[in-house]
User: Fold these one by one.
Assistant:
Number 1:
Amino acid sequence: MSKLFYDKLIVFEEIETEIAKVSQSKEEKEELWQIVDEMIHHKVLDMILRKLPKDKHREFMDKFLAAPHDESLLDYLSAKIGDDAEKLIKKEMDALASEILKEIKSNKLV
Amino acid sequence: MSSDYDQIRNKLKVKHAQIRNDFSSNHPHIEKYLAEKGISLSKIREHSAKIIGAGALAGALLLSPPIDMKALPSPEEIIQKLNRSQESSPDLPQKILIDALKSSLPTKTQPLNNSQEKYLESFLTNITGVKVKATLEGEHLNTVYGLIGAEQHLRRYPGDTLGQHGAGDTLEEGIAPGLGAWGYFASSYENLTPGLINTEKWYAVVQTLYLPNWNERAKYLINWYKYRKVLIVDTDNGNAVVAAIADSGPAAWTGKSFGGSPEVMEYLGGPKYKKGPVLVFFVDDPDNKVPLGPVDYNKINMSEMSLVQS
């Protein structure tokens, strides 16, 4: 099983639909899913680390790697950042979804 | 000239590289930290799978909050309730199921622990008459409790078209441009048997790609999962259907854990049903006797039911 503490905050259904339209096989579809997945991990962690005080980076990463699925990390982050971590992640992911869709849809204009 | 797929793939790979570069330049100390740990952010799902897998083997409760097992009626209580109600209310088995699940499952879908799964195995087997397992022949899905989303029809043979998939509302979902995880169901229209027609009609999608050991055991698992029967139970209304796994997905970033064919989704929630919470268990059917399609468990013969909890 695979689960990350921020999974519940990410719903990129429109991107999935667009990927399904151009993929001819399971392998093609899953390759694009993986690329999007990796973008998500880097964007989420980048945002968290930019917001989190630097002296808490190591502590957070230790907690994250010990239990990547643990949703209580959202409470931990909210407390350390002093802002609603869920909202911050959702906002970052909304922006990423728009950027990815823009890339995909611009292809249709070529 | 490259295909739409190639062009989109290339664009996404460029964006992916930019995002990774941004991360590296913004947080070089974290890059170093991850390198020392031997973990790549790109492989964080695999790392999560290993952590959760190790915890599950140790019997730890990893995911909270736990469901209230005491809220579920025991198998003995189920049969007592059903026997009492057979004359007065023919719908009661479904009502018992809905009430029990509503009062006991977490409101938000999430993986359940081993004891919760074992109880639900017994509960669903007793009430629907379909013998189910969370772990079958050592194989286990990523979760048994998740959101299911609407899928399109799958092409069954080269040249198959949407118009060949019956009539009515289920055609509105359309037909997937690509093939299912196992390719065509038949090499030609002539080789398309009634059984294969039924398999596509009642198909399910599960996240085989996120199984923790998929890459190491792909050859075996591909065969094991092909058309494997699962019982899907809508936890909101109790509707249940037996489906055959015929595709891989959905992506983890959709919020969904399963997919259902247009017919599966229509039976579970009606013609406009696009997404909802379900339980999904393997059907233990070594003799291939359990038919695909709706499970009308309100008509089951109570005298034939086994109500011994395994």
Number 2:
Amino acid sequence: MTIGIKELVFICVALLTTVPCLIVVFSRNILYSAFALFFTFLGTSGLYFFLDAEFLGITQVVVYIGGVSVLLLFAILLTKNINEIGKTNMMSAGRMALVSVGALALLGSFGYALSGTVWFHKDDGTYPATTINGLGDLLLGKYLLPFEVVSLLLLAVLVGSLVIARRSVK
Amino acid sequence: MFNMELTGITSYLIVSFILFLAGLLTVVSKRNIIGIFMGIELILNSAALNFAAFSRLTAHNLEGQMVSLFVIVLAAAEAAIALALLLAVYKRYHDISADNLTTLRL
């Protein structure tokens, strides 16, 4: 295994993805958690670029960083008392201990599965140089019905979230 | 044990496993609903990353990326609805701690 510049960048991006996760889990300040989540999304986008999935990477930036993170910050600042922000994201120690045991079991089974698996490689597949053309063909060909269903879902979400969150008018 | 290159499928699986575990711990242990919601986002993110990694590194086609795309869209829809519900709950109870919201009555 040789460590070149590509591997170094990959390690940095993987660390950018995984280290803020721990802040999301263990921080007591929910604003810190939100900003850590922002960096996790950024790192995931970088990993998509490493996978030659540039459209997914850009979508990740636009949807998660531009949309979900901002929405999250809005929700935090609209619902919480800012002067006690230091203890807005408390954890339940009992449940944490319980799920830690489960997480350790999962970790063990994951390592076991990973060490014994030889991954199947599909021989006839050819990964295209640019993915956007292929994704467009798939989206308007094979996946046309899910595409239309998702567009209906997004319309329903748009209307529904406005109805749920509106101020009640007397 | 792992005779692999560093940017192979195993590294992506490990990264997304860490994302999943962090999401799981967050969902179960947080008291704040927004914190729980962050955990859900982490879990969805790890699933999408797995789909993209398998699509690129073992299947060599774009079908897995398609699934990732749908996961991202559904996560965004879920985020919008969840946060709207959160605002409605906060207006009613002035509290968004999951342990205190024990009644279904409006």
